[in-house]
Design a protein that fits this description.
The complex is a heterodimer. Chain A is α/β, with parallel strands linked by helices. Chain A folds into two domains: 190 residues, D-Maltodextrin-Binding Protein, domain 2 (3-Layer(aba) Sandwich); 199 residues, Periplasmic binding protein-like II (D-Maltodextrin-Binding Protein, domain 2), CATH 3.40.190.10. Chain A has 16 helices and eleven strands. In chain A, the strands form three sheets. In chain A, strands 2-1-3-10-4 form a five-stranded mixed sheet, with helices on both faces. In chain A, strands 6-7-5-8 form a four-stranded mixed sheet. The radius of gyration of chain A is 22 Å and the shape is globular. By secondary structure, chain B is an all-alpha fold. The chains are: A alpha/beta, B mainly alpha.
Chain lengths: 433, 283
């Protein structure tokens, strides 16, 4: 019955997709986005963020993999229906000059000059150039991951611990204190099927202890780190392997401390701002690693409505729209927009954590994986499998690291992906030492 | 002339439809399973990666465990329920309808119903707590309680899908002439004897159909496992799903699909052979 249902469903989906251009007006500008996918967020885009826009686009969302396939297909068939795309830096990278589907994005150099007064930091604009002289996307919004804790957990903080400057050891001690005094495991991680646990490993835990995501994967520091993390996991709520969005268990008080993307913590902060505190992710021996998430707006080559797309980008990068985006969906401005002081308390909590993360003395930004193309999913799987084998199944750390390093090496060579910050740049595929 | 070809002409549209929408993707999936990315030619690379994966053995073990527990239980339950139905004089239709209600909801929805019952803040824990039997919520659905998790899945499957077997058995029972049973009881046979020597053998074709259907569906079980266990209890189809969407490796996902298909075919052949109606018996 499952196979037939899936087939039937895919047939219906195909039929609907085929009918879509006929249903939509021929003049509707299609804005394809991989961000703000859940229904509530997409509705906020359509109803709030796009209010007052000069063009009313058809806002279409897609998961990253189908997004890439769709754009590649349009490029290859020379049949263009999408005028504007919004996606993460890494998701647009295949269409940049150095990517596997180069030539997919229109250079926006002249248009970018009209946005010079927005105050977008040069660092972010530089990311949008992918190392060339041309601008391929305009930064749209940014986010990161941080931690939130119920105020009930604060009395159990270890002595001398500064909430805004915790180390992983102190986090482990904190969780262990709670377990010892209350008998419950109140630390949670988003290790569910749709959770972002792989980003925790790629952008936070591993780089904080080894200085990078890839090159030092099987180093002695990594071995020590995994052993420590297996110890920390003893104080973690076992339902963590079911958590996809940490806001839910935080609201039900299944856990008191949680780590997640800002967009997946915001509900809890908004509903009960007086019950929570937010703080940056902990630091390790190599610094306070964190993963900034940058989304950009780009115009595919051959887009049917370039003027409309540019007008939309202008609207979306206006300070007022950027502030609305921040307050509605928790993705923060890239432009010089002073967030109003009368922000909702929940948003204030998120802003304070993001600021504390970005301005920490030992902050170590870790880029999202770059240049992996279709191997992105397998790259994430390496970290998740390492976690599964060492922490959940208790296998010997050295053996697991060596085996997974082999898989990682193969992925990096197959994708021919160079190292990304903070790993030292490499000529050719990033090595796993 | 037209009379001879008329049946084929009439069947042609549905055969073409099924062929295009079912056979063609089936052949393509099998081909996908034996191709490795963009490399030309066929090979067993995807199957090697599938077997090497950390979850493969667990997926096979869990799938077989669930099938071997659920199918016999459901067959026995359905037989008992069908026989009880036969004794009802009034309200038989209502009882049959109530027993078939779970058939109307999707397996994911059924999984979510049982998730609401069994998770930490679910009805079961609330009820036990109120009765004073437990002091704190008990976890049944985590990786630390694999036995309880398996039990929960078996329970949810029993609740949802016994009706499939029941409906087929009820139809089969209705085909058995009452005269046989009456004649046997006139000759002094006990109800158990009647059941064992008359009802069961005459039910063999229905049991065969029900078992084939139920086993094939059990190998494809996905929604309930996903809802109750997430990644804690891998099964073959959930692994295929993960390889397709999370890991974006279509080849290995197709390999899993081929394995499920092979298992289903094997089970069907076994049933067809073992439960073959004896020569001369009523079909």
């Amino acid at each position: 019955m499952s196979h037939l249902s899936v087939l039937r469903r895919s047939f219906l989906a195909l039929a609907t997709l085929a009918a879509l251009p006929a249903l939509a007006h021929a003049e509707d500008l299609v804005w394809l986005s991989t961000q703000l996918r859940p229904l509530e967020e997409a509705t906020k885009v359509r109803e709030v963020i796009l209010k007052g826009a000069p063009v009313k686009p058809l806002y279409v969302v897609d998961e990253p993999a189908p997004f890439t396939v769709r754009l590649q297909a349009e490029l290859a068939a020379n049949k263009h229906s999408t005028s504007l795309v919004g996606a993460l830096h890494g998701e647009l990278q295949p269409f940049a000059p150095s990517g596997s589907a180069a030539g997919g994005l229109m250079p926006l150099d002249d248009f970018a000059k009209t946005l010079a007064d927005r105050g977008i930091p040069e660092k972010l604009m530089a990311l949008g150039r992918y190392g060339t002289a041309h601008q391929f996307y305009i930064p749209w919004m940014q986010a990161t991951y941080f931690m939130a804790a119920n105020k009930k957990a604060l009395p159990y903080l270890p002595n001398g611990a500064d909430l805004n400057a915790l180390t992983y050891d102190q986090l482990a001690e904190w969780a262990a204190n709670i377990q010892a005094k209350t008998g419950n495991r109140m630390l949670g991680f988003p290790a569910g099927p749709k959770g972002l646990m792989h980003r925790f490993f790629e952008g936070f835990l591993v780089p904080a202890h080894t200085g990078g995501a890839v090159t030092a994967f099987r180093s002695a520091e990594a071995e020590a780190m995994w052993t420590k993390f297996a110890g920390l996991w003893k104080s973690v709520n076992p339902n963590s392997t079911n958590y996809n969005f940490m806001q839910e268990p935080l609201l039900t008080e299944d856990v008191w401390i949680g780590f997640d993307h800002v967009a997946r913590l915001l509900d809890a902060l908004r509903q009960r701002p007086d019950d929570f505190v937010t703080f940056p992710a902990p630091s390790g021996p190599k610094g306070r690693a964190y993963m900034p998430v940058l989304a950009g707006l780009a115009i595919p080559t051959g887009a049917p409505d370039v003027k409309g797309a540019e007008a939309l980008i202008t609207h979306l990068t206006r300070p007022a729209t950027q502030i609305t985006t921040a307050t509605e969906v928790g993705f923060f401005p890239v432009v010089d927009a002073k967030l109003p002081t009368d922000l909702a308390p929940g948003i204030k909590l998120a802003v304070s954590a993001i600021n504390a993360t970005q301005n920490a003395k030992d902050a170590l930004p870790v880029l999202l994986p770059l240049g992996l193309g279709s191997k992105g999913g397998e790259f994430d799987k390496v970290y998740l499998d390492t976690f599964q084998l060492i922490v959940l199944r208790g296998q010997p750390v050295r053996a697991v690291l060596d085996r997974q390093a082999e898989t990682l090496r193969k992925i990096m060579t197959d994708a021919n992906a160079p190292c990304w910050a903070p790993d030292a740049p490499s000529a050719g595929a990033c090595p796993v030492n | 002339m037209r009379g001879r070809f008329a049946p084929y002409l009439l069947i042609a549209p549905s055969v073409l439809f099924l062929g295009a929408l079912f056979l063609l993707p089936l052949v393509q999936t099998i081909a996908l399973a034996f191709q490795e990315g963009s490399a030309p030619g066929f090979g067993l690379g995807n199957f090697a990666r599938m077997a090497d994966d950390l979850n493969f053995q667990d997926a096979v073990r869990n799938t077989f465990r669930i099938v071997l527990i659920v199918v016999p239980l459901q067959l026995s339950l359905a037989l008992v329920m069908a026989l009880m139905l036969g004794h009802l004089r009034r309200g038989r239709d209502i009882v049959l309808w109530i027993w078939s209600i779970p058939l109307g909801i999707s397996d994911l929805a059924a999984g979510l119903v049982w998730l609401a019952l069994l998770n930490d803040r679910g009805f079961l824990n609330s009820g036990l707590f109120r009765l004073g039997l437990i002091a704190a919520p008990q976890s049944y659905l985590t990786y630390e309680t694999p036995g309880a998790l398996l039990g929960a899945i078996v329970l949810a499957e029993l609740w949802r899908a016994t009706a499939i077997v029941l409906v087929i058995i009820v139809a089969g029972l209705q085909l058995i002439p009452k005269e046989y049973g009456e004649a046997a009881s006139v000759f002094g046979a006990s109800p158990w004897s009647i059941f064992r020597r008359i009802t069961l053998p005459l039910l063999k074709p229905s049991i065969q159909t029900a078992l084939i259907l139920r086993t094939v569906l059990a190998f494809e079980m996905f929604g309930i496992v996903l809802a109750l266990g997430g990644r804690n209890i891998p099964v073959l189809v959930s692994e295929a799903y993960n390889w397709q969407y999370a890991n974006q490796d279509y080849g290995v996902a197709a390999a899993y699909a081929v394995v499920v298909m092979a298992l289903s075919l094997a089970a069907t052949l076994v049933y067809l052979r073992v439960l073959r109606p004896a020569r001369g018996q009523m079909p």
